[in-house]
Design brief:
alpha/beta, Rossmann fold, GMP Synthetase, Chain A, domain 3, 2 domains, seven-stranded mixed β-sheet, four-stranded antiparallel β-sheet, 6 helices, 21 strands, 17% helix, globular
């Protein structure tokens, strides 16, 4: 992404083809790549400061608080913990990755985690847990705040469905668009995804109700249209994980002449010799969701491709069993 130098514990290495940044630029952060090829996002010092200030106000951060950073710093959800602490002067501890025992023995009051990590710790020891990554579980600790945002917005900009101060949200043709001081300046290749009047099309479908509360349905490219019905993968995945024979699962679409697309469950079985059957999985989904959500195809896989923040890389799901 045009970096000039790689810095490691062993020293610095210069790189060819370095691309300079503009005055005022603070950092270049790679997107997660959950929906395809990663992009370099250029965030200015002003954008980083705006994000840190708005999130700290919403969380009522005070002098007695203490941030714990244990998510990968190569993602904006992890790095933003550092920038918040630096901007506000809040005490900060950085762990070398997530370790449940180390997190449980921290004296921090604030932490940013993904849902799978929350399930492995004692959440009651924190004042607030900022929850990012994939869609939050239906049942979660009362001290968690579910956030919505992306690398292009410098971290979360909607907290428990309410936009942060200075964040505007609108819906255009079903797609959520954002306008706020936290937005990227451009991508690393110089392209600017914003509209002429400064709105950023997120690529997510959603809605804003009369009270200004934001609902996020999912990525436009993730929507499965089967027999004229719309199916979102994540609610189906949540149900399928309840099956005792499912170790992990992702839901995607495969083309079909009759239905247009088939709801397809990519299953990592607990026992590869006895994987769950299509009939079992369909019956389970029908108990919880409308019948058209039930998978019509099962593909057995060895591992669900995920980002380091546990988002499913649907573009990397195989088309055949392995």
């Amino acid at each position: 992404m045009g970096a000039a130098v790689v810095v490691t514990v062993d020293g610095e290495t210069s790189l060819p083809h370095a691309v300079p940044v503009e005055p005022g630029d603070a950092l270049v952060m790679a997107t997660s790549g959950s929906s395809g090829k990663q992009k370099g996002v250029v965030l200015s010092h002003a954008a980083v400061a705006a994000s840190a200030a708005a999130t700290s106000r919403r969380l009522d951060v005070n002098a007695s608080d203490h941030w714990l950073a244990c998510l990968p710093l190569s993602h904006v959800g992890g790095l933003s913990v550092l920038t918040r602490a630096l901007h506000t002067g809040t005490r900060l501890t950085v762990h070398d990755g997530f370790d449940a025992d180390a997190v449980d023995h921290s004296d921090a009051t604030l932490v940013s985690l993904v849902a799978t990590a929350v399930a492995r710790i004692d959440p009651t020891r924190f004042r607030v847990i900022v929850l990012g990554g994939s869609r939050p579980p239906a049942q979660r600790p009362v001290n968690t705040i579910a956030t919505y945002g992306m690398t292009e917005t410098g971290s979360g900009v909607v907290y428990d469905r309410r936009p942060l101060e200075g964040v505007e949200v609108r819906v255009v043709d079903g797609e959520l668009q954002l306008r706020c001081p936290m937005l990227l300046r451009c991508y690393r290749d110089g392209s600017d995804p914003r509209t002429r009047d400064g709105w950023f099309p997120t690529g997510d479908l959603g809605a804003v109700d009369d009270e200004g509360l934001v609902s996020v349905h999912g990525r436009k490219g993730d929507l499965i249209i089967t027999g004229g019905e719309n199916v979102w993968p994540e609610p189906v995945e949540a149900v399928l994980r309840e099956h005792p024979g499912v170790a992990d699962v992702a839901v995607g679409a495969t083309a079909d002449e009759e239905w247009g697309q088939l709801v397809t469950a990519y299953v990592v079985p607990v026992d590869r010799e006895r994987p769950p059957t299509l009939a079992e999985l369909r019956a389970l989904v029908k108990e919880r969701l409308a019948v058209f959500n039930a998978p019509r195809r099962v593909v057995i896989i060895g591992e669900v491709p995920r980002t380091t923040l546990n988002k499913v890389k649907r573009s990397e799901l195989p088309s055949n069993s392995v």
